[in-house]
Amino acid sequence: MPRRKPSPSPQSASHLRQSIAGLAARLMAEDGIKDYGQAKRKAARTFGVAESETLPSNEEVAAELKAYLSLFQEDEHADRLRRLREVAVQAMKLLESFRPYLVGAVLDGTAGRYAEVELALFADSAKDVEIFLLSHRIPYQHLKSGRPLPDAPEAKLRIEWQDEDVVLAIHPYQAERRGSTQRAKAAEVAALLAN
Predict the structure, then answer these.
(1) How many domains, the chain?
(2) By Cβ atoms counted within 10 A, which residue in 17, 118, 162, 167 is the most buried?
(3) Which residues pair with 160 in a beta bridge?
């Protein structure tokens, strides 16, 4: 009969969880990994932990990422965050007919060197957004969506605005009421910039 691997003590499990969160944060900050799940799995493998074992939450990794950025990239991070929020406000003004919201790392303050501006848009159809971009001569590319989730966008496009990448996640109008993720309108982002 095979021997079972002893489970770690609660204290060592907590320490391992924090170590994984810290490494995942560093991978996101330094290597440009944008997906929390991917960063956590890669960090867990480094520590020899199976993916099925308890991994830190996205919130734990985000907290470690904020700490890492403020410690190792403080000036660069503050300048980069300000720049991306300014770009977000300008892009949101352009796209105001699609009720844009800023979401993701630029909003929550975890945007690092490789971050993109992420906007949630609401339209009858993704084609409406594409037609708008074409009529304004703004080139775009379609992005592949990951696995389907309940709040997944109908389509994702990437544009370049003021030399920065902006990802447009296009949702149907009725999804705006659900609002399951943290998001901010242009006026709220402008208020963040004013502080």
Answers:
(1) 2
(2) 118
(3) 165
Q: Which structure tokens are listed for 133?
A: 């971009």
State how far the Cα of 40 lies from the Cα of 111, in Å rounded to an integer. Answer: 17
150: CATH:
3.30.460.10
77 by Cβ neighbours in 10 Å (0-12 / 13-18 / 19+) ranks as buried
| 181 within a domain of the structure (yes/no) | yes
Do both 55 and 29 map to the same domain?
yes
Cα–Cα dist 33/24, whole Å = 9
User: What is the residue type of 142?
Assistant: H
pLDDT in tens, 70-99: 887 777 888 899 999 999 999 999 999 999
| CA–CA separation, 114 and 172 (whole Å) | 28
Both tokens assigned to 84: 């991306």
Q: 117 lies in which domain range?
A: 74-194
Q: Are residues 180 and 128 in the same domain?
A: yes
Q: What is the DSSP annotation of 133-182? A: HHHTT--EEEE---S--TT--SEEEEEEETTEEEEEEEEEGGGGGT--S-
Q: What is the pLDDT of residue 54?
A: 74
Which pTM was predicted? 0.75
